[in-house]
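Record passed on here:
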Amino acid sequence: MSPAGARPRRPKRVLGSGGKLVHHARMAAPGPLHVTIDLADEAATARLAEDVAACLEPGDVVTLSGGLGVGKTTFARALIRALADDPELEVPSPTFTLAQSYAVGRVPVTHFDLYRLASPDELDEIGLDESLVSGAALIEWPERAETRLPAERLDIAFALAGEGRTATLSGSHSWERRIGRSLAVRAFLDRAGWTDAGRHHLQGDASTRTWERVRDGERRAVLMDWPRREAAPDDRRQVFRARDARAFVAVDAALRDAGFSAPRIIASDLDAGIVLMEDFGTEGVLRPDGTPDPERYRLVIDLLAAIHAEPRPVTLPLPDGTSHRLPRLSAEVLAADIAFFADWYLPHVGARPDQAAMEAFHAIWDDLFARLASAEPSWVLFDMQSPNLFWLPDRDGVARIGLIDFQDMFVGPAAYDVASICQDMRATVPAALEAALCDRYVAIRRAAAPAFDADAFVTAYAILATARALKSLGVFGRLVDRYGKRQYLRHMPRAREYLERSLAHPALSGYADWHRRYLPPAT
């Protein structure tokens, strides 16, 4: 079945019986998705289902057409199990119930079988529209729905072919991009020797990257998919951020060479932006109840003290002979960060400082950032918070802390990362623990270098912790108000509490006065 209104097109890519990408001379002109894939067996069908599951989003409709016994239900079952990350999940055919819902994984999905549908109007009764509000729909026998299905969908037509089957995927430009990217990841895994690997989507972040856990027998790995994209016009920070996987690979090698636990790179395609790396597992630095584990946070402090204890290179080599130069964490970078506070958080809470007040705001922060010019410089991993830290008990010393999400590493004030973990925006660090962690850092640095300037460090810490709190409030406000991600509201009280702690330092007295004048006490 072809998408409504689409002209038939010749397939532009064909996957061989092993699921590997092979190029044919019959390349179609640019246009909507139309690709035929050879499926030698059920395992190949399951791999295709995983490839579709990897790019499935809420609101998606995927239709499965073809005669009896061509693999529609096999595909649907494999896709649902991939979303659930449960190969044993019971997925019965909904032939008699017409619809079966699964609240699994990142995308709830409803499996429809319309073979017994008496009329397209019955779609209202079985809840197709409701299923698309927050989930996706898999629809067998879609022709029974006639014109009731949305035009924006992915159609998969299965057919017998010799000893195996074929699947022809048709869809819009959006599906062409998404399926094309997912099939490129599968081809990368094939080239890397992970041909039979299963794919499971991991929780992503606010960037353009996606993450998957990859399994092939007893082997485990994590895959980062980072297509290069242009900076968002409303995000001033992105000008200063890493734009592709080259930065990640370069920083990863530098950290490992220095004796720290960054994941070992198994394979990479820097041009495509795909990296397969060591899997650190799932154990982090938080307790099971989500509170900081003091022992593990203390080890993070030891790790940062070790990073800052000696000079670090600024130019980092890459495997292809090129290099990545670490940018400077300058006043301009920090100003772009706190601009999020003015642009997004102030409107979020209904604060409306006039032009003169905002000019005073920027003047205050220009002076504060100028004070950082003499702060001790070092590597700044830039996102030292609990979601990016793993516990590796089989290793020794600071190597027990596994590091990820470091592609934006800068050279700048060493206090930045200390403030990041001591005021972890994703887990509440009690004030007493924060003070103890800071004292530990200062004691370690003084023991190694008696000339270490503790007062200068504490001042830089207070300025940077305040800036981070403002940035975080702005980022959370943007995620809520622009993208409707209301789950970030729960982080705002924590950021405000941290902000109040930092404003107690004398260096922040000027900004503290401004903040309390223009923002209500609860905000």
